[in-house]
């Protein structure tokens, strides 16, 4: 255990796998985003939802767990954690405002637009999380060049 570990024994258990856990959380979050958008379209087509949409609880939980996972990565790997936490917080804010935009579209009787901003932000998070977790794949080539 490192002398500055924040959570002690938990850090020794998860220090080697946290990058893979965060990468899996990013993939789960991308899947729940697709599921939530599908749910929002169903709600918009039904007559019960004229003013507001119901948030997809699974997607909201996925967002919170992803934020907490990136913060935990920050306690173990400071540089990668701060970059990923910044990207994930940007994704979280983008999701929030895109949901509000969907409610405005619903109130104005427009078709729901696709979640372009949050899909782009989640793709950037996916790329960085993939980079920090799967770097060993390109490491020999990287070390020979750099």
Walkthrough of the structure:
By secondary structure, the chain is an all-alpha fold. The protein has one domain. Helix content is 77%, strand content 0%. It is built from six helices and no strands. Helix 2 packs antiparallel against helix 3 (57-76) and helix 4 (78-107) runs antiparallel to helix 5. The longest helix has 30 residues, at 78-107.
What secondary-structure arrangement, pairings included, does this model have?
Blueprint: H1 9-14, H2 18-45, H3 57-76, H4 78-107, H5 116-133, H6 135-145
Helix pairs in contact: 2-3, 2-5, 3-4, 4-5
The outline comes out as: elongated
Structural class: mainly alpha
Q: What's the mean pLDDT score?
A: 90
- Portion of residues within helices: over 70%
The whole-angstrom Rg is 18 Å
Number of helical regions: 6
Q: Write down the domain tally.
A: 1
Multimerization status:
single chain
Strand proportion: under 5%
Low-confidence stretches: none
* Biggest β-sheet description: none
Q: Could you spell the SSE succession in H and E letters?
A: HHHHHH
Terminal CA distance reads: 31 Å
DSSP summary, beta strand count: 0
């Amino acid at each position: 255990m490192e002398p500055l570990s924040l959570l002690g024994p938990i850090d020794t258990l998860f220090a080697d796998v946290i990058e893979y856990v965060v990468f899996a959380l990013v993939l789960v979050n991308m899947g729940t985003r697709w599921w939530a958008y599908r749910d929002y379209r169903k709600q918009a087509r039904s007559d019960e939802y004229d003013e507001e949409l119901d948030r997809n609880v699974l997607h909201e939980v996925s967002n919170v767990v992803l934020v907490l996972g990136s913060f935990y990565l920050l306690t173990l790997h400071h540089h990668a954690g701060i970059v990923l936490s910044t990207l994930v917080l940007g994704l979280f804010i983008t999701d929030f405002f895109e949901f509000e935009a969907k409610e405005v579209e619903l109130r104005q009787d427009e078709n729901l637009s696709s979640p372009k901003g949050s899909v782009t932000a989640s793709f950037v998070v996916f790329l960085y999380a993939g980079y920090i977790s799967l770097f060993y794949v390109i490491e020999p080539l990287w070390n020979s060049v750099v």
